Every structure is written in structure tokens, then in C-alpha cells.
């Protein structure tokens, strides 16, 4: 099939949004903000149907990513994630993904509140790949 992003043939990832016809290559989707869930049925979603965070988190002044210490967006979005347990830990998607790959499932937790279960469940849902080891 033809990729809806680069228009080249060979796309195989289908959006699981209701009645969404978008098909894309995995790398093209990653660059465009598509989300792939690395658990269960391995669902993928385009930029329009991707899961979003429903966390009530308020920033005070300019909030920094806990991992790289650089500024994050003013609200949760594709590139900025928030810990669902404490709502005080903010991260860049690329930073928390790197943390997940280095920590693996048995050590991956919120760097601030140390929550494991709620944090991992939300990160999985938002497309963060957490390896078993």
C-alpha cells in the first residue's frame, strides 16, 4: 500500500482509529507523530487518532524535563509527557523513551515519585516502548 506521509509504496502500518484509512511506514509515522503501542495487539494510530494524556497538571513558571533539564511545552502533548501518578514530573518524549530503553520493565518508573504500575501503564498507552530486559 502507499504511505499517506511519504507517498511511497510498501506501507504496512494501519491506523486503528475508527474508520481511518491512513496507512504508513513505521519510520514515517514516528517522524509525523503517529503512536504505536508496544503491548497487547500492537495497535498504531495516526497523528489525528493517537492517544492523548488526560492529566490535570499545572506548570509553575517554566517547567523543565526531569531528564535533560531543558524546557518542556506548557501542556501535555505528543512531545511532552507527564507522570499520571504525581502530575509533577514532566518529560520530553525522546527523553523518557531513552530512559525506558535503558531501564527496561523491572526498573522503569517515574523519576520523581517512583510510581511503577500507573506510570508504566500510561507510558505503554502513549507509545513508549519498554523492553522486558
Overall, the morphology is globular
Low-confidence stretches: none
Q: What can be said about the biggest beta sheet?
A: 2 strands, antiparallel
Give me the side-by-side strand order of the main sheet.
1-2
Q: Which band does the percent of strand residues land in?
A: 5-15%
Helix/strand class: alpha+beta
Number of helices: 3
The N- to C-terminal Cα distance equals: 34 Å
Order of helices and strands: EEHEEEEHH
Overall strand count: 6
| Chain-averaged pLDDT | 95
Cα gyration radius (Å): 15 Å
What would you say this structure looks like, in words?
This protein has 133 residues and is an alpha+beta fold. Helix content is 20%, strand content 11%. The chain has three helices and six strands. It has helices at residues 26-32, 93-103, 117-125; strands at residues 13-14, 23-24, 35-36, 44-45, 80-82, 90-92. A two-stranded antiparallel sheet has the order 1-2. A hairpin with a 7-residue loop joins strand 5 (80-82) and strand 6 (90-92). It is globular. The model has no long low-confidence stretch (mean pLDDT 95).
Give a short overview.
This protein has 133 residues and is of the alpha+beta class. It is built from three helices and six strands.
Would you spell out the secondary-structure blueprint of this structure?
Layout: E1 13-14, E2 23-24, H1 26-32, E3 35-36, E4 44-45, E5 80-82, E6 90-92, H2 93-103, H3 117-125
Antiparallel strand pairs: 1-2, 3-4, 5-6
Task: Quickly list its features.
globular; single chain; two-stranded antiparallel ribbon; alpha+beta
Amino acid at each position: 500500500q502507499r504511505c499517506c506521509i511519504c507517498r511511497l509504496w510498501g506501507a504496512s502500518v494501519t491506523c486503528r482509529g475508527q474508520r481511518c484509512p491512513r496507512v504508513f511506514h513505521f519510520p514515517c509515522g514516528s517522524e509525523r507523530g503517529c503512536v504505536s503501542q508496544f503491548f497487547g495487539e500492537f495497535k498504531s494510530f495516526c497523528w489525528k487518532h493517537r492517544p492523548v494524556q488526560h492529566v490535570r497538571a499545572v506548570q509553575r513558571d517554566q517547567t523543565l524535563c526531569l531528564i535533560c533539564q531543558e524546557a518542556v511545552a506548557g501542556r501535555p502533548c505528543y512531545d511532552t509527557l507527564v507522570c499520571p501518578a504525581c502530575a509533577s514530573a514532566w518529560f520530553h518524549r525522546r527523553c523518557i523513551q531513552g530512559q525506558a530503553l535503558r531501564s527496561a520493565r523491572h526498573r522503569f518508573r517515574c523519576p520523581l515519585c517512583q510510581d511503577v504500575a500507573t506510570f508504566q501503564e500510561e507510558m505503554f498507552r502513549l507509545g513508549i516502548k519498554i523492553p522486558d530486559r
